[in-house]
Every structure is written in C-alpha cells, then in structure tokens.
Amino acid sequence: MLEKILLLLSLSLSVAEGLCKPGVGEAYKVRFSIKTALGDQAYPWNKNEMFLFRAALAFAMRDFTNGEEFGVSDIHPCNETQRVSFWFVVTRPKTMDLVDKGTVEMAIKKSRNRINGAFLLTDKTLEFDGIYPTLAAPVSPDTPPWLIVFGVVMGAVSVGIIALLVYPLVQRKLKKNMDADDEDSDEETGVKTAENGANDGIYNSTFSDDERFTQM
Amino acid sequence: MEKDGRPNWDSPMQFVLACVSYAVGLGNVWRFPYLCQLHGGGGFLIPYLIMLLLEGLPLFYMELAIGQKMRLGSIGAWTSISPYLGGLGLASVVTSVYLCLYYNVINAWSFWYLFHSFQSVLPWAVCPINSNRTGPTEECEVATPTQYFFYRETLNISSSIEENGGIHTGQALCLVLAWAITYLFIVRGVKSTGKVVYFTATFPYLVLFIYLIRGVTLHGAINGLKYMFTPKMAELANPRAWINAATQIFFSLGLGFGSLIAFASYNQHNNNFQNQAIVVSLINSGTSIFASIVTFAIYGFKATLNYENCLDRMRLLLLNTFDLAEDAISMDSVLDFYFNYKLPLFLFQAVEGTGLAFIVYSEAIKNMPLPQLWSVLYFFMLLLLGMGSMLGNVTAIITPLRDFKIMSRMSNELFSGLVCVFCLLLGLGFTTTSGNYWFTIFNDYAATFSLLFIVLIEVIAVSYIYGIKRFEKDIEDMLGHRPNWYWKIMWAVTSPLLLIGLFIFYIINYIQGGTPTYQAWNKELVNQDLLFHEQE
C-alpha cells in the first residue's frame, strides 16, 4: 500500500516536472529583483520564499476563479536561477491538467498588488515576463493648474495696464481743478509785479509754452 | 525734458541698462554655447573676442552716436544724414516688424513652460499613459518625454508645413499675455521702459549665478566643464569658426534693427556714450561666456546621467539574459563585459536654439532635486531675457514712426496699442499646428541676411557719404573729444571689409545650399522609429 502511494506520488511529481518546461506551453517566467528593491534590507531567497510565492499564486487563482480550491501543490516551479528567476506552470486542483496562459495572466493581473505586497516589491522589481502591469489612471484635475497661474498673471497685467492708462486722466482732472483755483491768485500777483517794475526781469508767463511740455 | 519736447531717460544708468537688457537675450544662452562646442570649446573665444574688437564695438558705437546726435528714430536719423537714405531706416523698421512677429512666440513658450512648472510632477518628466493603461503612448515611447511635451503638447505640431490646423488655444493665450506685458512695459515710452529695465537687465544675472552654483555642484558637471575648457586650437584654422564668430557678435549686439538708434535718441546731448558702448559690449560678451559655463555644466550633468543610465540598462540586460545573481555585476564592472560606451560620445550632442532651451535644459531640470523650483527660476530667466529684447524691438518700430507728423497726432498709448495688437494678430499664425515650421523660416531668414546688408550700408553711409570728418566733429560736439584712430580705421576700413566678406559668404552659402530643407516631426512614422525626417 505504502509503495503504491509512494509510486503514485513520485509519478505525479515527475509528471509535474515534465509539465513545467521553460518557454513552452502554458509556462510563465517570473523574475525577482530583491536587492534592487530593498538594498540592505534584502531578504535571501530560499525554499520558504518559494513556498510563499506558490501560496500567493494559489491565492490569486482562487480569487480569480471564485473558489476553485487551488493549493500550493498546484503551482509547479522549475529552472530556478541565481538571478532569482524561474518558470512555473499552474495545474487544476486534484488533477494534472494545465491551466491555460490567459486565465493565469488574468488571475495575476487581478491580484498583482497583493502578490507584490507579499514580497515587499513593486511592479518593476517583481516581473512576470509577458504580463504588463496595469498603470494607475492619470489624475486629471477639473481646471488644469497652468490655467490658474495664467489667470493670476493675466489679471495682474490687466490691472497694471488699466492703472497706467487711467492714472494720467485722473491726474489731469485734479490739475484742472487746481488750475481753476490758481488762476485767481495769479492775476493778483501779476498785477503786483508789474507795479514793482519790469527791470527785475521777472519771467512773463504769458508767452510760455508750458502746455506743450506737460503733455507727453 | 529737453527743449524740443522729446522724452528722456531719467538717468544714463537707465540707458545703459536698456541697452544691456536688449543686447543680452536668448542668443547669449542658446547660440553661443553651441558655437563654443562646435568650434573646439575654449578656443572659440579667440576669434570671438577679435571680432568684438574689429566689428562689434565700432558698429555699436556708431549706431549710438547717430541716435544721440540726430535725436530721431532710424528713419528720421538716416534721412537727416542724406535724404536718399531714408529707405535704410525703413528697412530697419520692416526687419524689426518681422522680428517682433515671431520673437514673442518664444516668450509665449516660456510662459507655457513656466505655468506648467507649478505641478507636483513636471509634465515633461513622464510620458502620458495610453488608453489600455499598459504603458506610455507610442509617440512618447519612441521619442523622449521632454521631446513629446514640446512637440505634441506645447506645439501640437503637424507633419509638414503644408498641413495647417487650428490654433493651439493654450499657446494663443500665452501669446496674448506676452503682448499684454510688452504693452505694459512700453505704454509710457521711455518713462515706463526705463523703470522696467532695472529689473529685466539685472535679475537674469542673479538666476544665472544661482544656476552656476547649482550647475557646478551637479554630479558629472565637471565632465562638461573639462570639455569646454580644453581648447582645441586646431579648430582655429577652420574659416567657419571665424565666420561664425563674426556673425554671432553681429547678431548678439542687435545691430541694424534701429533699436540702438531709438534708445540713444532719448539721451541727453552730452551723454558719454563712448564708455557706455564699451561697457555694454563687454557685458554682452561676458554674459555669453558666463552662460556657456552654466550650459556646459548642465551638458556634463546630462551626459553623465545618460551614460550611467545606459550602463545600468546594460547591466540589467546582462543579468537578465544570463540569469546571474543581482550583485554579480556592479556598475563599474559592466564595462568589463561590454566595451562600447564611452562618456565623450554623449557630450558630443551639441544642440542650439529652442531645442537647447526647451528640451535639453528641461530634461536636465527634471533630474535635479526639487525640479519645480529650478524650472520656475529657469523659465523666468528666459522670460526676462526675451522680454528685455522685445522692449528694444518694439521701440525700434514705434520711435521712428512716431517721428512722422501724421502719427504724432495719435496719443502715445493708442499708437503703441495698435502696434502691439497688429503684431499679436499676425503672430497668432505661429501658434497653429504648423506654426513651428513658419517660426523656423522666420528665425533663419527674416533678419539675418537683411541685417548684414543694412549695417553694411550704414557703415558705408557714415564713413563715405556723411564723411568721417563730419562724424568726428559731431562726436566732438557731444563728447568733447574726437574719436581716436582705432575707431576711425574700424569704421572706414575694417568693418566694411568684414561685412562685405560675410555678405559674400552668405550669398555663396545660400546658392550652394540648393532648396532649403527643414526637419519635420512626423507622427505617422512612429512605427518606423523615424520621428524626425528631412523634407524639401
């Protein structure tokens, strides 16, 4: 009895070994870049980490197929290298039928974040050859930020232009009021200086062209 | 205020700063470093400085003298020298109009980049994602994110000059803003221009200084600086180096547009423009050299970064292909496996013009720590340089036209406003999808040839038609002493000969060049990895 079980087990194992062939059929290659991601805090790769990977992948398959009871033994890795990269295939629970590539891909895509998180890695440092990560959707604000800055600057410039154009008009109005007052006082002083004598050489404002100079 | 009612600069300092602001422009930042690299680094300074003495200084002095003596814009000034020379002034005005049309578009681009710097991730640092969310858009993948941002998002460029599209609204808005600010600066004539130039002339130096410190402390900047300061004297034997030095000095000082005549016409009669001419020319050349130090530091940084990125990519490729452990190959030992990449190759990619300012520099900026700050500073500096030059350009149009009796009946503000609106409306053509190709045409052909001709006629007119003797007396009248023999020889002999030589060279070049070509950005060729292709 025991021998039969052992025989069956070794047979199944060897069949599984046969199932996982790099580059052929339903196999996927996965690559870990632990030292790149974690630097000093990198953990060494060993059988336990491999167990974690198989468990994570089994979880992904369960999650995608909604309850089919995948187990750790249904994930078959092979050709492990120093890089830390290896190929793997997935078989249906309790049978040796390979799960097709498409299903595996969709399962991994759905649970990618969870698998990354289990290993403290990212989409870039835990790569599945052939499965492209789904990038985060770009954030598009309601008003593009550049328009806001543009609005501020444009507003300031417009205010500046209007101020520069209106200011001399306002000045002229004030001056007209002032001139109206000045003319009365001028007449009195003008009469006084004429009485004192023209020999003093006082500038006679009648012939001046002040108007022309003040207008630019 | 002088007796004839012409407005004046508040002080001679304002005039000097106005000239500095006008002469120190974008060309100092993006043309001179390119020429320096093209002609053997530090050695290029020799032909550059020699041409400054032979051609730049005398012509600059001459234009200031004419403006200050005649107290009129270019048309009036040349008509006073000889009634038949009025056309010379008119030519200057027309060239200035061409320049104004397309120059403010550069300022519009600077505004666009400046406003886009206020984001947590600079938009030219990453590619936009395609609709499947699997990776960057195809066009961006083939090009780099900075190129994509400039050609697709800033310009929305079409495939050729014949394909016209609509106006890029963002660009149009920025152009309106650029003209609004120009109007704001010139609306009161020299009274407003004189105040603005205190800022536009000095602040770029502050930014350049900050960038100098930042630049030389960048990783790998020393490679760029070493490349610049090791002169390759063999290049001096190449006549192209001398011709490029002559043309660079010529265009950098902004001769022939009438701006210098216009600025000088607002001077007091006894203003000592001789010293000012020397000071401004030296400042202009000094700024070029200063800017090229900064640019080469940035080149070195960018080249080193690209080099190290490339080494890293190679290392990863080797690791993945041979499935070696991650620490089997370090950055230094990559070269043991793969010999072909050498640093100087990366430094060889010299770029000039808008490519340097908007693509190379923004790529370098996105890799600096705190890129938003550096981006804002840099584009603000570009804006100040561009705006400062625009002040001179617009003054060169307005001053001569104001001298005509018909125009002087209109108020100053209205006339300036009309000029600005006119240039704005025509300039909108450069914001269409094929606008950049039109811009290139104007940039390459609008001013270059005509200016040589204008200044050649100017110097011949002053030396031989007006006469050096009369010119001498006018200068003595203004300064109190005659110009010495150096100036007289330059005006009468050297500068005209040099200009004739340049003129002939340009004509020969033009004839030999055949049909002009331009580089087009063709979206349809993305699949063939050929984003740029020449087209006739």
TrEMBL record, chain A:
Residues 24-216 form the Collectrin-like domain. Keywords: Cell membrane, Glycoprotein, Membrane, Phosphoprotein, Signal, Transmembrane, Transmembrane helix. The chain crosses the membrane at residues 146-170. It is a single-pass type I membrane protein. It is found in: Cell membrane. InterPro entries: Collectrin, Collectrin_dom. Residues 1-18 form the signal peptide. GO terms for biological process: positive regulation of amino acid transport. It comes from the Eukaryota. Residues 177-216 are annotated as: Disordered. It holds the Pfam family Collectrin. One of its GO terms (cellular component) is plasma membrane. PANTHER family: COLLECTRIN. This is Collectrin-like domain-containing protein. The lineage of its organism: Eukaryota, Metazoa, Chordata, Craniata, Vertebrata.
UniProtKB/TrEMBL annotation, chain B:
The gene is SLC6A20. It is a multi-pass membrane protein. Na(+) binds at residues 23-24, 28, 252, 284, 385, 389. One of its GO terms (cellular component) is apical plasma membrane. The keyword Hydrolase does not apply. Belongs to the sodium:neurotransmitter symporter (SNF) (TC 2.A.22) family. This is Transporter. Pfam families: SNF. The chain crosses the membrane at residues 12-32, 44-62, 83-105, 165-186, 198-222, 242-266, 278-299, 376-402, 414-439, 445-468, 489-508. GO terms for biological process: glycine transport; L-proline import across plasma membrane. It is found in: Membrane. One of its GO terms (molecular function) is L-proline transmembrane transporter activity. Keywords: Glycoprotein, Membrane, Metal-binding, Sodium, Symport, Transmembrane, Transmembrane helix, Transport.
